[in-house]
Specification:
The complex is a heterodimer of chains A (402) and B (386).
Chain A: H1 16-24, H2 26-30, H3 37-44, H4 52-67, H5 70-81, H6 87-91, H7 98-111, H8 115-132, E1 143-148, H9 161-164, E2 168-170, E3 173-174, H10 178-192, E4 199-203, E5 215-218, H11 223-237, H12 244-253, H13 256-259, H14 267-278, H15 287-302, E6 306-310, E7 314-315, H16 320-325, E8 333-334, H17 335-354, E9 363-368, E10 374-377, E11 385-387, E12 391-392, H18 393-401
Parallel strand pairs in A: 1-6, 1-9, 2-11, 3-12, 4-5, 4-6
Antiparallel strand pairs in A: 2-10, 7-8, 9-10
Helix pairs in contact in A: 3-7, 5-8, 15-17
Chain B: H1 8-27, E1 30-31, H2 40-43, E2 52-57, H3 77-83, E3 87-94, H4 101-110, H5 129-137, E4 144-147, E5 171-173, H6 175-182, H7 190-193, H8 210-219, H9 225-232, H10 238-252, E6 257-261, H11 273-296, E7 304-309, H12 333-336, E8 337-344, E9 351-353, E10 357-358, H13 362-370
Parallel strand pairs in B: 1-9, 2-6, 2-7, 3-9, 3-10, 4-5, 4-6
Antiparallel strand pairs in B: 3-8, 7-8
The chains are: A alpha/beta (402), B alpha/beta (386).
Chain lengths: 402, 386
């Protein structure tokens, strides 16, 4: 089937709100090439479970597509239309399984050396869409906070090497009540600009008390979900004919109900939490990976105005000789290794934040928990600068927000 | 900050220049264009019969910024200070194929960008270097070996192409699989260790014939199952086990063409940056150990050329389609552009070449060194090596 054959009945199995919005823009979809449409449907099929900002972005995109003239459609989608797809892909049920189609399409593009053409077409489309749908300015400056190194007593390496190039490095930070100060600032921002899923606190361990109006996700709180998911994955792997691609298809279809774990009353957040484990790699095993990936997804999808990520020590990777000696031993943690992971995670947190609108006025802080080192980035802070003056995190927050 | 990518060509060129400048500064290497004399291989024609080649894929994909860029130098002390000054170093090696480890290794081994399913148990679609080598030079099966990390690589040694194919390629040894067989029934916690690869950590292709493999362990490597398992208990990673097996092969079989695929670095797929860095440092150490072994093993000393190259890179920090070092899925310049170090017999010491080459150029270049012509390879000769 090709997009021009789409009918409203084609979307009969879509959740109600997703079906409504797709059918509303059916004529626009019918004019677009197959190399493109499933990518859009992948977003649309989950419309009922998307964050408010994602819904808004999708609505704008569909409206823009509906408004294009035939000439503009040709200009915008000529590169996608020139990508050749296999008969197998054309025959795939891409309406109902758009994510799986996109995965197979990617494999096909790799194998036929069309990936670079697709990347170019996608980048050009993204630029055009950005021009057409200018993002509305945030009512407040976006703020990112990364708290790293919990459980590390001493550290001799260079900390925040990547981030220092973009801001001011503080070496004499008073660590007292540091986490409380930072969480209080997040709470204040949630009060000043109350909006669903705008203010987040992600913890790689057990979350500490935090204010109302903050969306919180933590590794420990999702322990039962992780366990159920791993059990399900093992059961699927043992089935005859199961391979990595089939497993990914199964995972992509999973819903919270399938796992029989009641972990959140909020259906939007439940889906988000499940996807952290079904789409993330390593999130099921290492808490540092979980924290970094969650930060990425919170920024990419919810476009959080405030995001505090606190990293916790992950489990230690046991070397081969230990594994061969047998026994599971005690669940040890690797605090120094986790600091290295978290430092890179903090850098990615900042990069992901810079991809969002209004990035030129955003602020960012990374703090070595319980210690005197921090780095702050903001419009008024000097780059590649070091400050040895005594300062507390409240003042650093003020500087990053100025 | 501008997070958009430069053009592919610009970025790849920048990566290569960074490597070159760093190597020149740090290791005192000369630029290839300044070296005017003819290749040492021209004078080494008579030595071809004894020539041995060892190829090491610096396994699992490593980026410039964690290896040869200035900020990565602390991770590769052995390669930088001991090996680079003795090597011809190619700063701009690109891989235009599919960036999955099995398919990319198959492409390296055939000199053609293979399009097979990375996770399927299939043979390369074109003749491998091992088949060309054995057929044209009439070498026995004991003269070409592959040491590979996972069950998914068990068919890497030969294609199914008419005129080549089964029985005419390399023998493949899978140390982790041997360890699993040797440790069967014990109390070892092998589930994590023996997972097949880091991209699909819970999935391991099932292979038959374990008993035969264990017999080969004893007959070829002259190693009892018990001794093998005992020695494995002293090692910290699968790549250390691979090196142990490779050294044993060199001692007992002395293959002329030995291909070792390292894989520890691919732990990066778990998202733990510290483990990725540990993997690079370990691979650096293992490459230096192998180079030392080559220089001390009588069958190899003085007549062996060693190639070290990553199969590909990993995604850039700035490509929104990826998640930085964790994967190699975007096809961006950082994931496609790597380097290659060539050391040993017939190779100029301390020379850096900026000339763009492709990973599929490896096969015809080795063919020219050893005296066979890989007729179906689409790679080109690397002139600086022949």
């Amino acid at each position: 089937m090709l997009p021009r054959d789409l009918k409203s009945e084609s979307f009969a199995t879509y959740p109600p709100e997703a079906r409504a919005i797709v059918v509303q823009h059916l004529e626009a979809l019918r004019r677009l090439p197959l190399a493109f449409v499933p990518s859009l449907l992948r977003e649309a099929i989950d419309y009922d479970y998307r964050f408010p900002i994602e819904r808004k972005v999708l609505e704008k995109e569909l409206s823009t597509l509906s408004s294009l003239t035939e000439t503009q459609v040709h200009e915008w989608f000529g590169s996608f239309a020139s990508i050749s797809l296999s008969a197998g892909l054309e025959g795939f049920d891409w309406v109902n399984l758009p994510a799986q189609f996109v995965e197979q399409e990617a494999a096909y593009l790799w194998s036929t050396h069309q990936l670079d053409s697709f990347r170019k077409a996608a980048t050009e489309y993204g630029n055009r869409l950005e021009q057409a749908n200018k993002a509305e300015p945030l009512p407040m400056q976006r703020l990112g906070i990364a708290v790293v190194g919990r459980g590390v007593t001493t550290h001799s390496g260079i900390l925040f090497r990547n981030l220092r190039k973009h801001g001011t490095y503080f070496t004499n930070v008073g660590p007292q009540n540091g986490l409380e100060t930072l969480l209080a600032a997040v709470g204040e921002r949630a009060k000043t600009y109350p909006s669903p899923y705008a203010h987040w606190y992600v913890d790689g361990g057990t979350p500490v008390a935090h204010g109302a109006g903050i969306t919180s996700v933590s590794y420990d709180a999702l322990g039962s979900l992780r366990g159920s998911l791993l059990k399900r994955m093992r059961a699927e792997i043992d089935r005859p004919g199961m391979g990595p691609e089939e497993l990914r298809t199964v995972l992509a279809r999973l819903t919270p109900t399938d796992l029989g774990v009641e972990f959140n009353a909020d259906p939007v957040l439940s889906r988000f939490e499940l996807k952290l484990f079904t789409e993330g790699s390593g999130t099921q095993i290492y808490s540092t990976t979980f924290a970094q990936w969650t930060a990425r997804e919170v920024l990419r999808r919810a476009q959080a105005a405030t995001l505090l990520v606190r990293y916790a020590p992950r489990q230690r990777q046991r070397p081969m000789n230990e594994l061969l000696a047998g026994g599971h031993g005690e669940a040890e943690v690797d605090a120094p290794g986790s600091l290295v992971d978290a430092e890179m995670g903090a850098y990615y947190h900042w990069i992901d934040q810079q991809r969002l609108p209004d990035s030129e006025r955003s602020g960012f802080i990374a703090w070595f928990e319980g210690h005197g080192e921090a780095v702050a980035i903001g419009p008024s802070l000097s780059r590649r600068t070091e400050s040895n003056s005594a300062i507390d995190l409240g003042k650093i927050l003020a500087l990053a927000s100025a | 900050m501008n997070v958009s990518s430069s053009s592919w060509r610009e970025t790849a060129g920048l990566v290569s220049r960074t490597r070159r400048e760093f190597l020149r500064d740090a290791a005192g290497l000369a630029l290839g264009s300044a070296v005017l004399q003819a290749s040492p291989f021209v004078r080494a024609e008579s030595a071809r019969k004894k020539r041995k080649v060892v190829v090491v894929t610096f396994g699992g994909g490593a980026r410039d910024q964690e290896t040869f860029a200035p900020e990565g130098q602390e991770n590769i002390p052995q390669m930088l200070t001991e090996m680079a000054p003795q090597s011809s170093f190619f700063t701009h090696v690109s891989n235009q194929g599919i960036l999955g480890h099995y398919v990319a290794t198959a492409s390296l081994a055939t000199g053609v960008y293979e399009t097979l399913n990375n996770f399927a148990s299939v043979a390369p679609e074109h003749p491998t270097i091992f088949e060309y080598f054995r057929k044209e030079l009439r070498r026995p099966s004991s003269d070409a070996w592959v040491v590979a990390p996972s069950n998914g690589f068990h068919r890497i040694g030969e294609s199914e192409v008419r005129g080549y194919g089964p029985g005419q390629g390399a023998r493949v040894i899978l140390p982790k699989r041997l360890l699993g067989l040797a440790s069967a029934g014990g109390n070892a916690d092998l589930e994590h260790l023996l997972h097949d690869n880091y991209e699909t950590p819970l999935y391991t292709p099932v292979l038959a014939g374990g008993e035969v493999e264990l017999q080969q362990l004893e007959m070829i490597l002259k190693l009892s199952v018990g001794d093998f398992a005992s020695h494995a208990r002293t090692l910290s990673s699968p790549d250390e086990l691979s090196l142990y097996i490779a050294k044993r092969l060199m001692r007992e079989e002395a293959p002329s063409l030995l291909w070792i695929t390292m894989h520890d670095i691919d732990v990066a797929h778990s998202g733990a940056y510290s483990l990725y860095i540990e993997g690079i440092r370990r691979t650096d150490r293992l490459c230096a150990e192998l180079w030392k072994a080559i220089q001390t093993e009588p069958e190899y000393a003085g007549n062996t050329t060693m190639f070290v190259l990553p199969d590909f890179g990993r995604d850039s920090d700035f490509d929104a389609g990826g998640n930085g070092f964790q994967h190699h899925r975007t096809g961006d310049p950082a994931s496609r552009t790597t380097w290659m170090m060539v050391l040993g017999a017939g190779v100029r010491h301390g020379v850096v070449y900026d000339t763009p080459v492709q990973s599929i150029d490896l096969v015809p270049s080795i063919g020219a060194m050893m005296g066979f012509a890989p007729s179906q390879s689409s790679g080109k000769l690397i002139q600086e090596l022949v």
